[in-house]
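Supplementary Methods, section 5.1.

A reviewer requested that the exact input to the structure prediction be made available. We therefore reproduce it here, unchanged from the version used in the analyses.
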Amino acid sequence: MSTFRVVIVGGSIAGLTLANILERYKIDYIVLEKHATIAPQLGASIATLPHGARILDQLGVFSRVAEISMSVHEAENIGPDGRILGSPEPIGDLMEEL
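The structure derived from this sequence is encoded token-by-token as follows.
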């Protein structure tokens, strides 16, 4: 039986999720990231919708993510020039019900 190593390019959400899955199945992998740290804080945020929460639950990390998360009740869509493009209807309360 031949062995192989999975190469994951990028320590993004997708890359780290794949690394988590491979770790659980004891598949050899390496994560290549151009930044000095994995998952650098670049001013981005993450929103988890119900289908994403289900996957986090299947990975066994949802409860920990929920502990360190906060609900979003208002949002604005901002263009590259800083101008507000729109404000979606508040969905935070609806998301918490799901």
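The chain has two domains: 1-37, 48-98. These observations are discussed further in the main text.
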